[in-house]
Design a protein that fits this description.
single chain, mainly alpha, 166 residues, 2 domains
């Protein structure tokens, strides 16, 4: 092994000390950043919880105010005096009448449409049944004529054979 001189040992020690200082500075900076990140995370978690708590309070308040506004708006025409109340009542009655009339007309149209459809289907089925009965009757008559003709031919042959035997 080569021995070092005093100057070389000092230079090496200074380099090592500088490296240790740099590493310590990096660790310290890294620890500072980690602490800041943890603090921000805790702060943001706290803010999220705070926002949720605020929502839990603000939602019912907003709903109650909206309901109040609707009640006030609905009652406004009726507190303006008798003529105002009568006018509003008549307006509401006409609105209900129109809506009832519309519903009745819609129902009548639907009934007519259904009736027409049922009648059409009934006519089609009746026509099909009539055609089927006619076709089957023709085929039955044709088969009966054919069977009668075959029977006559058979009877004639038997008579001829009986006549030839006698």
């Amino acid at each position: 092994m080569a021995t070092q001189t005093q100057t070389q040992r000092k230079a090496t020690a200074r380099k090592a000390a500088a490296t240790r200082r740099r590493n310590a500075a990096r660790r310290s900076q890294s620890a500072r950043k980690a602490a800041e990140t943890r603090a921000e995370a805790q702060l943001s978690t706290l803010q999220v919880v705070q926002a949720q708590a605020e929502r839990a309070v603000l939602i019912p308040v907003g709903a109650a105010l909206t309901a109040r506004d609707q009640v006030v708006e609905t009652a406004k025409p009726y507190v303006g005096g008798r003529s105002s109340a009568e006018r509003e009542l008549n307006r509401a009655l006409r609105k209900f009448e129109r809506r009832g009339n519309t519903a009745r007309n819609r129902a009548v149209r639907e009934v007519k449409k259904t009736r027409t459809r049922v009648e059409r289907e009934l006519r089609q089925r009746r026509t099909q049944a009539t055609r089927l009965v006619r076709r089957n009757r023709r085929e039955a008559e044709r088969s009966a004529r054919s069977a009668r003709s075959d029977a006559r031919g058979f009877v004639n042959r038997v008579q001829e054979q009986v006549g030839s035997l006698a």
